[in-house]
Amino acid sequence: MQRAATWTVCIAALALLAPGCAVRNTPPDGGGARWTNTLGMVFVRIPAGSFRMGTAASAEELQALYPRAEPRRLQGLDDERPAHAVRITRPFYLGQHEVTVGQFRAFLERSGHVPESIADGTGGYGWNPAYDPATTARGDAFEGRDPRYSWRNPGFAQGEDHPVVNVTWNDAQALARWLSRTEGRRYRLPTEAEWEYACRAGQQGAEPPPAALQGQANVFDREAAVHWPKWADQAFPFHDGHAFTAPVGSHAPNAFGLHDMLGNVWEWTADWHADDYYAHSPAEDPPGPAEGEVKVRRGGSWHTWPLYARCGFRNWNTPQTRYTLVGIRLVREAP
Fold this sequence. Notes:
By secondary structure, the chain is of the alpha+beta class. The protein is built from eight helices and 13 strands.
């Protein structure tokens, strides 16, 4: 980003929303590689282009790549198939990072929005070292719902520059609507196709092996496995320096200049989920199913096992779900 020294200071302090930093809330005429909005969110211009969406690998091929994955998990990936050609016909701006705690806090203070975990009184999910997943019917890794957990408190320490969690799809929509209204440009969640295109960033062929994510992603590694020893055999074979969330941008960016597309927190997309959507998906700018019950989230998190830390993996939850692993990354449409 070609800006004066003051701009550099602003970007470095974006999560802290340092006072006195003037931020540009529209890109320069004709577009630009990067720009920063009024909440300090940095956006990267993603060019139009084509890619192969989904997974072509068979269950046997995935088993060879992820030998510790349980066979039943390898059989549950049919919604990633068939792999198919997709064209993104228009450039768009995508958040360089996931929305931070500081940015979400500023949104709440300026907009008056009340997050669903607080508005409905049921809270969210959180990490509690005294909680035993084996004592619950679902065997969930985290305690909840509980009113003491929310975006403010996921049960572990977070700084202002960490990705916000325990936010619902509806909260993400509220943030996008507010930014659109206050800045006069359309913000929204990315479609699944836009998200996967940005994640792959020109990568062709098979997914890289798990070890290739070292230095690239905050995932379920040896630091995190200390807190969940029953799943230690599923941990990535390295240390990424973070047992829980990491400050956004802690790891190397992909070829588009985007950080944490894999790992750190799952990211809501705009699309409803349907198991068979890829079989009849449009070849250009697929919008996802017209209706559904659950929304797709992508990218994995700091608690994600190797099989799921892939650009092609799909997961989903209801729009009201709030969870200690799920956050937000926004699109700002190009002029």
